[in-house]
Specification:
By secondary structure, the chain is an alpha+beta fold. The chain has helices spanning about 5-25, 30-55, 65-70, 75-80, 85-110, 120-150, 155-180, 185-225, 235-245, 260-265, 270-285, 310-320, 350-370; strands at about 25, 80, 250-255, 290-295, 300-305, 335-340. A hairpin with a 2-residue loop joins β4 and β5. The longest helix is centred in the middle third of the chain and has 40 residues, at about 185-225. It is elongated and about 100 Å long.
């Protein structure tokens, strides 16, 4: 019976690790075929592995040599599951690291008691640990670890793989340094591995932060108009629909710059760009916290105004302008059109049509007055 306890502990490890691999990788075969294949593979591995390991110097219950045999399961796993060999190695390495950690804790806790034999105590304590942590660990692997592994670029998977290898070697070497406490070299090796594991962990963090920075930069390019730095049409639609969903009253102000074409025709497009930037900055400053200005296209702008008196801002747009347009062309004014929710429409399409119609009427009126004068 004494020789049976280590074998039962190994089988326990295999069941935990192989079930973790099974839920983390896509199956190439049916579950029944996978179970039969792994079971048939395990019989000679357990028999031959136990015979070889027991003949090695320093083999005693608790040294965990059998954990190293687990990596031979990459052979059937590679044929039974879909994915690259690197991905499968990362999952296997992470899973075996978890089971090794449980084994190491079980071994050290078992030393505090003296009932039954050491091998039996390790098996019982290990079984308790697996019962308490296995579900949590598998949930972590599926929700977080697999997501990271599949999301990282293929040319960057080596960093994750090396981190997993270092984690496994660190835990294994640390465990051995306690089992063979008189071996100073093991403690030195554990310290060195800890150092490199920290280095690779920081490299992983740096890679993640760099990706986040690139994502924020890309998000900024998508959200903001490159010329005026105002939010763009897609952001306007997003914000307007959010207000409509929450049934929050607001005003929609369409703005079209008067005679903008003459600025481009007279001084060129660079001057026109400066004209647009000056107006955008001036109008945004004038809004304050009462609203948000968006650039739709060209010289067309729209404002979501949340204050009570949009007429104040409209009057400011119509009667004044930026003191410095950035070019030699004085500000030519702007035509505006107002629509209010829910008074003028219950959806964005109706509000846009109403504001656009009112802006067109105001522009025609200004042109008529100009002709009379």
């Amino acid at each position: 019976m004494e020789n049976l306890w280590p074998l039962l502990a190994v089988i326990q490890h295999l069941l935990v690790n192989l079930s973790t691999v099974h839920i983390c990788l896509k199956k190439r075969k049916t579950t029944k075929e996978i179970i039969l294949t792994l079971a048939a593979f395990s019989v000679p591995v357990l028999l031959i592995g136990e015979a070889i390991l027991s003949s090695l110097p320093g083999y005693i219950p608790g040294n965990g040599y059998f954990v190293l045999v687990g990596f031979i399961y990459l052979l059937p796993i590679h044929r039974l599951y879909i994915g690259s060999l690197a991905q499968k190695f990362i999952i296997v390495c992470a899973s075996w690291t978890y089971s090794l950690s449980v084994y190491s804790l079980s071994y050290h806790i078992s030393l505090f008691t003296d009932f039954m034999t050491l091998s039996a105590r390790i098996f019982i304590v290990q079984a308790i640990f697996f019962l308490l942590t296995d579900i949590i660990y598998k949930r972590f692997m599926r929700k977080y670890f697999v997501f990271v592994m599949r999301s990282i670029a293929p040319n960057e998977q080596s960093l994750l793989k090396n981190t997993c290898i270092l984690a496994f070697l660190l835990i294994y070497t640390t465990h051995l340094s306690f089992v063979f406490f008189d071996q100073i070299l093991l403690r030195v090796a554990a310290t060195v591995l800890m150092f490199f594991h920290v280095i690779y962990s920081y490299k992983m963090i740096r890679r993640i932060i760099k990706s986040l920075c690139n994502l924020r930069e890309l998000e900024g390019q998508i959200k903001y108009d490159a010329l005026t730095n105002l939010l763009n049409r897609s952001c306007f639609n997003r914000d307007a629909y959010a207000l409509l969903r929450n049934k929050t009253p607001f005003h929609l102000i369409f703005i079209d710059l008067d005679n903008f074409k003459s600025v481009n025709d007279t001084l060129g497009h660079l001057a026109g760009d400066e004209y647009l930037k000056s107006f955008s900055q001036w109008a945004s400053d004038g809004l304050g916290n009462q609203g948000i200005l968006y650039r739709l296209a060209g010289d067309e702008f729209v404002c979501i105004y949340k204050g009570r008196n949009p007429e104040t801002f409209i009057r400011q747009i119509a009667t004044s302008g930026p003191p410095d347009t950035g070019c030699k062309f004085a500000f030519q004014g702007a035509s505006t059109g107002l629509a209010s929710y829910p008074k003028d429409g219950m959806n964005l399409e109706h509000l846009i049509a109403c504001a656009d119609h009112n802006m067109y009427k105001n522009k025609q009126k200004k042109q008529y007055v100009k002709q009379l004068s």
